[in-house]
Design a protein that fits this description.
By secondary structure, the protein is mostly helical. 79% of the residues lie in helices and 0% in strands.
Length: 194
């Protein structure tokens, strides 16, 4: 007889194991067996909960995006000015939970998955639209009509820092990444005020 209430716990364990496996291997070329073993269960149970490898990857992507969205919402709730709102979004992008090696590897591999999976592509498009929308809204009061163009560049900088980190060695430096992106934002804000 199945244990009641175990499905959400096991699903989350499999999702976290997926992110860890992708991070360790740096690729989507991991097996359901490897993921299940890391989660402490059988591959048959993993297939039962998700159906297949792509569905596990998409669930991991959804989970990662949910963690990021929660951090952005929390950071935005504490911000008062447009500049603080932009900084809140940037800081959430490079928080210790979002900008660690395994999460960076997972994000980069989700971009790869989105090239072949409609479901992953839709999720990635939701992320991009939400990021640009949040940035554009925060920048509008300071940069006016340029807000959406500036938000595109800030979003590209965030993605670029993730890309560089995925190619580099060492521990991700979230504070350095925030400083790098906010340096550009400060220039744009100063230009908007002049």
């Amino acid at each position: 007889m199945p244990k009641l209430g175990m499905e959400p716990i096991r699903r989350e364990a499999l999702v976290k194991a997926t992110i860890a496996e992708i991070g360790e291997h740096g690729t989507l070329d991991v097996t359901v067996s490897q993921i299940a073993r890391r989660a402490g269960m059988s591959s048959a149970l993993a297939h039962h909960y998700f159906g297949g490898k792509e569905q596990i990857f998409v669930a991991a992507m959804r989970y990662t995006m949910g963690v990021y969205a929660a951090e952005v919402r929390g950071a935005l709730a504490m911000a008062d000015t447009p500049a603080e709102r932009v900084e809140a979004i940037v800081r959430a992008s490079f928080s210790p939970r979002n900008f660690r090696a395994e999460t960076v590897a997972a994000w980069m591999n989700f971009y790869v998955l989105a090239q072949t999976s409609d479901q992953a592509r839709r999720l990635l498009n939701v992320y991009h639209r939400r990021l640009r929308s949040n940035l554009c809204h925060a920048l509008r009061l300071v940069t006016g009509a340029r807000a959406c163009d500036v938000s595109e560049r800030v979003a590209a900088l965030i993605d670029g820092v993730y890309l560089r980190q995925s190619l580099g060695q060492g521990t991700p430096d979230g504070a350095g990444a925030v400083a790098q992106v906010m340096g550009y934002v400060t220039l744009e804000l100063e230009q908007g005020l002049s």
